[in-house]
Inverse folding.
């Protein structure tokens, strides 16, 4: 094959932390990109020592190291879409936002990762304001879970009316779309994610799967969304695929490790190939 007749390679970038256990963070993102046919790139913000039992250590990188990774990518490998995960500190948030502006990366999914499922902080408390001030205005989509939406808005969320009110408040902070994920609402047989574009609410529902193996669900969902956007899909379409991807990944959980296990990143494609 010559260079000129090669089909275009679609590329996505994740700016996030490493999960040594492979279920969340940069590892979940790259696996998801790959499964959805997108070439994955990464800029690491922090290394975590982590497994299905919890987070044993957090080692953030210097802002200079994060900036250097983004410059290397910006100079040579323009991503078709970008997502952020664990950003840890206000200094790293400011660096990342400045680089996104410098390179004009606007197809941006912000997963406002704050706390790991086991309760360990992945974002310093003082960094929430930096997220709101510097990153939310640049983002195309933000994907908070219910506790994250509560912290961003300062409101207590119980019930759908509260979720709609919170989505409106987060939307007013700058993102074009808000997806308020419903995984933490453990009532009822359905899990409802709410998509808000500033005008309409769209409810994405799926059967709630009774499992403790949900480590990395948010990372995987936002990576699938970014992959769809990189492929040129519009947000409502990309969200549907992301929801189907995470549903399959949770349903066919891998059952590894003694704690909260990872989702199955192979599941969505295995189903399409009829290999369930
Ligand atoms: N038990 C579950 N059954 C089905 N889908 C789930 C379940 N838990 C989470 N999800 C889905 O996984 C994605 C991540 O949700 P959530 O758990 O709210 O976010 P986070 O992982 O950031 O805490 C959402 O699309 C949500 O609907
Ligand atoms: C490096 C890193 N990034 C993000 C998460 C959140 O994942 P989850 O809340 O789905 O366990 C995590 N546990 N580790």
């Amino acid at each position: 094959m010559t260079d000129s007749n090669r089909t275009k390679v679609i590329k996505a970038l994740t700016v996030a932390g490493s999960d040594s256990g492979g279920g969340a963070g940069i590892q979940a993102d790259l696996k998801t990109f790959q499964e959805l046919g997108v070439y994955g790139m990464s800029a690491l913000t922090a290394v975590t020592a982590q497994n299905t039992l919890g987070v044993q250590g957090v080692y953030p990188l210097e802002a200079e190291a994060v900036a250097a990774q983004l410059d290397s990518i910006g100079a040579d490998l323009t991503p078709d879409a970008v997502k952020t995960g664990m950003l840890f500190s206000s200094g790293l948030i400011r660096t990342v936002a400045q680089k996104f502006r410098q390179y004009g990366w606007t197809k941006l999914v912000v997963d406002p990762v704050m706390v790991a499922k086991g309760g360990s902080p992945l974002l310093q408390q003082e960094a929430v304001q930096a997220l709101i001030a510097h990153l939310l205005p640049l983002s195309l989509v933000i994907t908070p879970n219910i506790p994250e939406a509560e912290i961003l808005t300062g409101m207590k969320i119980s019930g759908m009316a509260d979720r709609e009110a919170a989505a409106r408040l987060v939307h007013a902070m700058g993102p074009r779309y808000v997806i308020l994920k419903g995984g933490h609402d453990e009532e009822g047989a359905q899990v409802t994610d709410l998509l808000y574009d500033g005008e309409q609410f769209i409810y994405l529902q799926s059967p709630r799967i009774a499992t403790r193996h949900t480590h990395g669900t948010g990372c995987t969902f936002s990576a699938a969304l970014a992959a769809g956007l990189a492929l040129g899909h519009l947000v409502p379409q990309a969200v549907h695929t992301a929801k189907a991807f995470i549903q399959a990944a949770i349903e066919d959980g891998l059952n590894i490790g003694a704690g909260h296990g990872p989702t199955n990143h192979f599941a969505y494609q295995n189903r399409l190939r009829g290999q369930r």
Summary: The chain has a mean pLDDT of 95. The longest strand covers residues 39-51. Strands lie at 11-19, 39-51, 54-60, 81-84, 108-110, 141-142, 177-180, 190-196, 201-207.
